[in-house]
Amino acid sequence: MKVDKFHQEPNIYVGEVNIKVKNLDYSVTFYQNIIGLQVLEKSERKAKLTADGKKTLLTLEEPVDVIPKQDRMSGLYHFAILLPSRADLGVFLRHIVETGYPLGAGDHYVSEALYLNDPDGNGIEVYRDRPSSEWKWNNGLVEMATEQVDAEGILAVSNAEWKGLPSGTIMGHIHLHVGNLEKAKDFYTKGLGFDVVSYYPQAVFLSTGGYHHHVAINTWQGAGAPTPPKNSVGLNWYSLVFPNENAREKVMNQLKQFGAPLKEEGNYFVTSDPAGNQIRLVI
CATH fold of 5-282, please? Predict the structure, then answer.
């Protein structure tokens, strides 16, 4: 299945998200039965989940001394699973309606999105993109809003049976709570080299290659929101995929000049934004 142009080289995009949960078995059941991911590998405290049976999209970890998700903290707002088509979104929507699981939705002009929380309160978006030829740009910023979704229109596209997430599903973007919007914006633009592509009240959307966003940051948990404890439910880390070693090297030099933390761990490097959201830089 051909991946859309925004999630392949020469762009930098989100590859995998790793989150902490309170009960691994319970969470795995949710992500299989409600979201439709498959288990790739599972141990006592960790499970790797996939849509295509090969690539890990989401990893769940249960820390030994795990505590529930903390309020008014930085960290994960949601990770966003991108489906290949509107028909796939329709199949997913019908499945969720049939399960009775709580659901929110929004039409963002560039995309149609459904929103859920996992059993621990980790936010999940499942969406499909409209063709990029239909996106409207003004002075380098893409038009986005939150309007009511045409649920009937989405459902009408396909009456196919739900069989879990299609194999062409990828991690589309990540949206994060931060404590200081300006500092985080500087990190993502001057350090990681992302472009600002849209603004919302107390939020900034960033991307590479003209996507509507690979990363979003907000202060909706309050300016100055602290970094959550390491053993708290929520984001552990997420990965950014680079097209090659040169592209990663360039960004690492920018991060060093910016004064961001940077350390090598195996075949990847780890940095974190000013809010403490940890990022793995992979190729």
Answer: 2,3-Dihydroxybiphenyl 1,2-Dioxygenase; domain 1 (3.10.180)
